[in-house]
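User:
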Amino acid sequence: MELSKDIINVKGRRSSVDYKFWTKEYKNQFNILNGSITRGKHESIANLKGGQIVDLFITTSDLEKLSVGKEDITVRSINLYENSLMTTDEFYHNRELYRVRLKLWSVFTALMLILNGLTNIPKKLNYIIIGAFIGTIIIMRILEVGIY
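Assistant: Predicted structure:
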């Protein structure tokens, strides 16, 4: 499919997508969901320009939506000139890790709110717990272990 214009990076906004784009063949908006792209491949996807031809993998149910042209389509895989920018395996693996990260943040936030609401934790201990959690996340991100 040929892109009708440059891909749009939606980061920084409250949205469930990282990138969106349109093709010349269909009126639908194509979306690449948050957390589905492997680290190091964002720049390749962000540099897609109008007129480039990409191969997309979408689900059968999304394929049926193409004829209508009104509903958004979720991209599961994208290739540019036989070069894979995101595979379906990466998509599903990264989306699962994204869900785990969201759950982890939610549990930590809930735990901190409960601890601060039910007990009188000293400020210093509160900062130590928060610092340890953030430090662990940073180390996991740098070493690419665990949920990153």
